[in-house]
Amino acid sequence: MLALHFGAGNIGRGFIGQLLSASNYEVCFIDVNQSVIDDINSLKQYHIEIVGDVPERILIQNISALNSSDTEAITDNLLHADIITTALGPTALKFIAPVISAGLSKRISQDCPPINIIACENMQGASSILRELVCDHLSSKDLQQLSKYAGFPDAAVDRIVPLQKNSEKLLVQTERFFEWDVDETGIAGNKPPVNGITYVKNLQAYIERKLFAVNATHAAIAYLGYIQNINYINQAINNDNISSIVKCLLKEAGFLLNKKYDFSINEFNAYSQRILQRFSSKYIADDVTRVGRSPIRKLGVNDRLIAPAIQLADLGIISDGYSAAIAAAFCFDYKNDTEAVALQVHIKKNGLASALFHYSRINPQTELGKVILHKYNLLQK
């Protein structure tokens, strides 16, 4: 079986590539980094190190790589592929849509079996977005038949693979925990046999569990840690004040998810404990500035902090944990992040009340808005 995977970075090699390889796929990585491509093609293998009290070293073999510019070779491989996955960043999906559409057009013309294309990006509806981008490049005839030949099931993925510098080529260090949930209702044909995928019927529940709990907690630790000049996530979570806030946030997340999707409170509490254990691991030192990057996106109305805070407010509950995290996010002034710089320029020019509505669509005159403004002012002192 052949898997085409777009993105040969740490997530691609250290998460998706590992699971595909363990499921007996030949994995062809597609990337723009020629140095990584050359290393994959010359070494034909790499290692993953699972960090922890009981470390493990895993050898990944049966791999190859292509440069993203080699569209002819990619199209030929796509014709024979059994699954296509991505892990290259949400903004890069538009760049791979043309070559995927060309390959799908060939598959349609040759009446190939259906294939599933799963975008494993840190965003909601990534596969659906990729489908729209692919459709822009297909003929009207191919569009009419697309659903028969290709599925674009959305997915929720979770694994910490921090920035790292390793002397061993292609080595990736990662945590043991991972989660890869795929919407089985979006599958075309048979479900791809990948050990590690959990096929679910209500993916939105799992997306929001990750977004409102894992991603929100990660961001909260980063922004609160940054304010206190703490460099790493695992150090910040051990700060009593930060720990108290994120535990409050997780309690709020559990309440909301129970109301919306009937997630068991006891099961969610266990899930929350696992989140805190992961982020406090001494083996993964993740920079707060890396986790906090792109604050404007993370303060979006449908994203990890704002969406649950608004939904709780709609239920008559003004969050304490989420509000503190939101206030801290508006304080993120890291000068090497373009969004952080733009955010601070807006606040300096127009004030936080304006920024709160402009970026997060929260009316500063509402109870939620007032609480966030109050917490922000306390952080500024």
UniProtKB/TrEMBL annotation:
- Give start and end of each Mannitol dehydrogenase N-terminal domain: 3-195
Entry keyword annotation includes NAD: yes
Q: Does the keyword Coiled coil apply?
A: no
GO MF assignments: mannitol-1-phosphate 5-dehydrogenase activity
Alphabetical keyword list: NAD, Oxidoreductase
Q: Provide the catalytic activity annotation.
A: D-mannitol 1-phosphate + NAD(+) = beta-D-fructose 6-phosphate + NADH + H(+)
> What EC number(s) would the UniProt record show?
1.1.1.17
Location of the Mannitol dehydrogenase C-terminal domain: 202-346
Q: Which residues bind NAD(+)?
A: 3-14
Q: What InterPro entries does UniProt report for this protein, alphabetically?
A: 6-PGluconate_DH-like_C_sf (IPR008927), 6PGD_dom2 (IPR013328), Mannitol_1_phos_5_DH (IPR023028), Mannitol_DH (IPR000669), Mannitol_DH_C (IPR013118), Mannitol_DH_N (IPR013131), NAD(P)-bd_dom_sf (IPR036291)
Coiled-coil intervals in this record?
A: none
Tree of life domain: Bacteria
Stated family: Belongs to the mannitol dehydrogenase family.
Instruction: Fetch the HAMAP family from UniProt.
Output: Mannitol_dehydrog (MF_00196)
Its recorded name reads: Mannitol-1-phosphate 5-dehydrogenase
Species of origin reads: Pectinatus haikarae
